[in-house]
Amino acid sequence: MDGHESTRGRKLPLIAPEDDLCVARVPLFQGLTTQQQHNVASLAIPTRVGADEQIYSAGSAVSQLMVVHTGRVKISRLTADGHEQIVRVLESGDFIGEGAFIDGSRPDHFAVAVEAGSLCVFRHADLGRLIDDHPSIGMAMLRTLSRRLDETETRLAAVISGDVASRLADYLMSLPVRRIDGVPTVELPMAKKDIASLLDTTPESLSRQLRRLSDSRVIRLHGRRIALTDIGTLTSLSTPV
């Protein structure tokens, strides 16, 4: 994406002024006062993306930091045999494009919107001035990058030492939980084929494991909604960190 334009070369519509402040819910900027957040927002380019919109591709020049405001963005790489391997799914408040800002490197991955949403886009030159003026932004960025590294190491350990069942249990336990009729319940945030890629397995294997957990009454399936009916068993299945 270059300026207001996506990698497809067309202009993306700006968010209407009546939408909430683009930076207000972003952890990078939560250490700032309301007035400082407004100053930061004046530098942001609020940009809408559509479902399956490619934000940038591997090897492309990225001159902006893009913060997810609403929706989700998947980060993926292509394997040697041409298959997509999802590395991470970004939620509201997460950001991309920091590599080029820090060391000028080009991404080795693709960034694609999982669903329609919006981004707060900052030109790298503006971001540098913001960090000079508000060092807490730089510290928040470092904390996020450190957390990502920890998550990557945990996933790698799970792939090496755990089976699909344990990786699936880990994943289900990591999703946001809400209680429905008194039962802890999660909702799958994307298609099962994408979750299978994230867990380094096949869609068929993922479906088999979900059925086994359901048949064992560890979970109860309702489409994308999954009731966690036996937290104890899920915990015992999950990979120790």
From TrEMBL:
This is CRP/FNR family transcriptional regulator. One of its GO terms (cellular component) is cytosol. PROSITE patterns: CNMP_BINDING_3 (PS50042), HTH_CRP_2 (PS51063). Residues 28-107 form the Cyclic nucleotide-binding domain. The keyword Transcription applies. InterPro entries: cNMP-bd_dom, cNMP-bd_dom_sf, Env_Response_Regulators, HTH_CRP, RmlC-like_jellyroll, WH-like_DNA-bd_sf, WH_DNA-bd_sf. It comes from the Bacteria. Pfam families: cNMP_binding (PF00027), HTH_Crp_2 (PF13545). It comes from Ornithinicoccus hortensis. Residues 162-232 form the HTH crp-type domain. Keywords: DNA-binding, Transcription, Transcription regulation. One of its GO terms (molecular function) is DNA-binding transcription factor activity.
